[in-house]
Structure formats: structure tokens, C-alpha cells
Here is the input.
Amino acid sequence: MQIEASSSAAALELACFSVQGRLYGIDVMQIREIVRSRPVTPLPGAPALIEGVVDLRGSVVPVVDLGRALGGPEVAEDGATRIAVVHLDDMVFGLRVDRAVDVLSVEAERVEGTPALAIQAGYDTVRAVVRRGEEAPVLVLSVEQLLERVYRSALSARSDS
Here is the structure.
């Protein structure tokens, strides 16, 4: 699946990933790098959404399975599986995705906010939706809210024990 990038002035550049057949985007300014998936070393007692850690050029990076973080099944490991290394403030972590797709330059008029019903229901993982004509939209993820889901998974695990 290729995404055609626009040559006009872009309001947003997104690194796009496929997870369970859906297309998600993250602002490229939050992506440090994208690497081939590799074995993860589990962290005993870590929050449920943290698979474990990987060693990337001398840095230990926690890895979150984006499929599970979005409430679905875990990402199936195959030759196309990637880890998108993201940074937020001083924190760096990896998101395991089915595949990296492309970088999409998006004009402001194609970006819409999350539907009001979803926001009122407390859903905040998707911060915007990119319309693509006849193709399925790209869901723009909030890295901050993904991290919040990891924190909440830790809290719920503690209250269950």
C-alpha cells in the first residue's frame, strides 16, 4: 500500500504504519527512526502493554505492541514487521507495527479532528483523521495518549494484584 505524497505546502507530515489492516500516522517530528523488528527481552513486572526492551545501538528502548495498545490483537511477527522508535519530551520508546508504509504530506484541508461522539465518549487516542478520497482515512495517533494507555495498564495491573 503506497500513499501518494502531495507537492503542495503541507500542514503535517506523517509517518504511516499498517496495524491489523488499518492505516495510522504519527507526526514525523516524533519519529526518531524505524527499524526492523527484533527479539524483545521481557521486563518482569512491567505494565501489560510493554512487551519488553530492545538494545538499539547501545540504548535500551522499551517496546509497546501498537496492536494491543489500540485494543486489538498483538502484531504478528513477519519479515515486514517494524519498530517505530518515537520520542516524546525526554522519553524514547518503540511501537511494534505490522509494516511501515510511507511518509504522507498532508494539506490542512484534508485533516479533520476526531469525531465529536468519540471525544465525548472519552476516546482520545486518535487526534485527527486524514481524508483520502475513495481510500480509507489515515488515523493520526496521539503519542501522548498512547503513553497514557501504557500508564493506565500499569495502574490497572497494580489494582488487580
